Amino acid sequence: MEKDLICVVDDESRIIDFIRIYLEKEGFAVISFTDGLDALDGVRQSMPALVVLDVMLPGMDGFDVCKALRMEKNNVPIIMLTAKDEEIDKIIGLELGADDYLTKPFNPRELVARIKAVLRRNKLTRKSSQFVIKVGDITIDTNRREVMVGEALVQLRTQEFELLRVLAEEEGRVFSREQLLNFAWGYSFAGQTRTVDVHIAQLRKKLGDYSAKIETVTGYGYKLIV
Hints:
Elements: E1 5-9, H1 13-25, E2 29-33, H2 36-46, E3 50-54, H3 62-71, E4 78-82, H4 87-96, E5 100-103, H5 108-127, E6 132-135, E7 138-141, E8 146-149, E9 152-154, H6 158-169, E10 175-176, H7 177-185, H8 194-207, E11 213-217, E12 221-225
Parallel strand pairs: 1-2, 1-3, 3-4, 4-5
Antiparallel strand pairs: 6-7, 7-8, 8-9, 10-12, 11-12
Helix pairs in contact: 2-3, 6-7, 6-8
């Protein structure tokens, strides 16, 4: 069986080697780059299943690599690595089209779990039959991976889409942050629930002022209501 190819981009060779050990142990094939420009060309040529992309790179930083790929309509899943635990870095990465982020230092088992979750979602999506969810003014086509708000098509990243789908499938149900990590992301790690808050903020911006609202349940999580 052909192995999924993972592209790892980091300016520190020791980090690449560290990640490679864990990925190869899990049955992935790995290519790597230490420079942003080389990585961009490498992704174009090798067409990996997923890219693990550091933000701080020589030649071209990770944000610009991500932006360039998305402008080329290359939808390869991207998990960004950042050495800073600053919300702005994470939000910028998500707005440019990254599917997830992980702050250094990180547990390599968590990175592997996130990679598997993203790949699993993509494979299930390709096999899924048509199914439409409608909540108020929001229409979610899970087969086409499209979201309409009123008459407008709303562009959502992979995890934004999955998060909205989970909330919409059980309208009015209150989901904890841990449940949303598990159901929408496919993994659960203590201390990582802040990623849910970041994606909720992005979703609220994109959905705008319509009848369906994502409501915060203080101290617990979120629900979608009309």
